[in-house]
Specification:
CATH architecture: Up-down Bundle
Keywords: Cell membrane, G-protein coupled receptor, Membrane, Receptor, Transducer, Transmembrane, Transmembrane helix
CATH topology: Rhopdopsin 7-helix transmembrane proteins
Helix content: over 70%
Subcellular location: Cell membrane
Membrane topology: Multi-pass membrane protein
Largest sheet: none
Low-confidence stretches: 272-279
CATH class: Mainly Alpha
GO molecular function: trace-amine receptor activity
Pfam families: 7tm_1 (PF00001)
CATH superfamily: Rhodopsin 7-helix transmembrane proteins
Strand content: under 5%
Mean pLDDT: 80
Number of strands: 0
Order of helices and strands: HHHHHHHHHHH
Structural class: mainly alpha
Number of helices: 11
């Protein structure tokens, strides 16, 4: 029978080497468990609907939607990774040092690719709004796929090299058994902060500031010309309005992303401790962003609502359903 002190240890048999469990009231632990489980399930489910929608329906195979597909893939993986945070509810890691290192490296990769995809979305909207005459000739589906592939490959390589010591020597930086941490020295921490936050966020803010200024200018121009448009001009007017609407919707996605991720990176920027706890509140807020993105699509994209109805009613199993006009 365990003594009360042994019951507070992650590994009671390793009395002098084990980490201590995080002590919480049972009701609080249950609330955290239910919250994390609900977020994980909702994140995976909603993002799987986005992935199926864009992958299945050919009408949705556009450069912008391929970027949303990439974002949905990373968000869906975040939902799966939240299940590992559930394991850490009591502050103990029971899956071994190698699994810990792989989990944390994968988490860094997914976070980086999400930010990289946000940069690509900002570039896409910048070109569409600021250089509309070049957009359809320069931004093609194939080029977008190539950019997405390069984004994933570069961040996988970058994070693997950055965290190679954590992969080569799993558990090297833990202070006790049951701890799951990733360690970066000062230079590595600054490098990761710059390439994963400061640089991308600066690019996103600069590009979307330009998009906002141009969009407002174009909206005023269209209002002054709407009464005098010809049939040909009406088509151009609708096309331009559609691009501006897409820019505004994706702008909401970017703003929500910044609100959810900035607390985590600001905490990382101001703390003197380079160890990153997987159970921090700021980290959870970072993850919640992956749940919010599909909800934004539900609110603003009619095509997503239509595709969800077709998926849930199993009508996508019908022959030639991929050619359905859901726009």
């Amino acid at each position: 029978m365990q003594t009360p002190e042994e019951g507070e240890l992650c590994f009671p048999k390793l009395y002098n080497l084990s980490c201590r469990k995080t002590t919480r009231p049972p009701s609080t632990s249950m609330l955290i468990y239910i919250t994390l489980s609900s977020i994980s399930l909702l994140t995976v489910t909603l993002n799987m609907l986005v992935i199926i929608s864009i992958s299945h329906f050919r009408k949705l195979h556009s450069p912008t939607n391929f970027l949303l597909l990439s974002l949905a893939v990373s968000d869906c993986m975040v939902g799966f990774l939240i299940s590992f945070q559930i394991i850490l509810i009591d502050g103990c890691w029971y899956l071994g040092d190698l699994m810990c290192a792989m989990y944390l490296v994968l988490d860094y990769v997914i976070a980086s690719t999400s930010i990289g995809t946000m940069v690509l979305i900002s570039v896409d909207r910048y070109v569409a709004i600021c250089y509309p005459f070049f957009y359809f000739s320069k931004v093609t589906a194939e080029r977008t796929k190539m950019c997405i592939l390069l984004c994933w490959m570069c961040f996988i390589l970058y994070q693997t090299l950055l965290l190679k010591e954590n992969l080569q020597n799993p558990g090297r930086f833990k202070t006790c058994y049951g701890e799951c941490v990733v360690f970066l020295n000062y230079f590595e921490g600054f490098l990761d902060l710059f390439f994963s936050f400061i640089g991308p966020i600066t690019v996103i803010i600069v590009l979307y500031s330009r998009v906002f200024v141009v969009a407002v200018s174009q909206a005023r121009s269209m209002r002054s010309q709407v009464a005098a448009v010809t049939l040909h001009g009406s088509v151009r007017f609708k096309a331009k309005k559609s691009e501006m609407k897409a820019a505004m919707i994706l702008g909401v996605v970017v703003v929500v992303f910044l609100l959810c991720t900035c607390p985590y990176f600001c905490l990382t920027l101001t703390t003197q401790d380079t160890g990153v706890s997987a159970s921090s509140v700021a980290f959870l807020l970072f993850d919640v962003n992956s749940t919010l993105n599909p909800l934004i699509y539900v609110l603003f994209y009619p095509w997503f609502r239509k595709s969800v109805k077709l998926i849930l009613s199993l009508r996508i199993l019908r022959p030639d359903s991929c050619n359905a006009n859901i726009m």
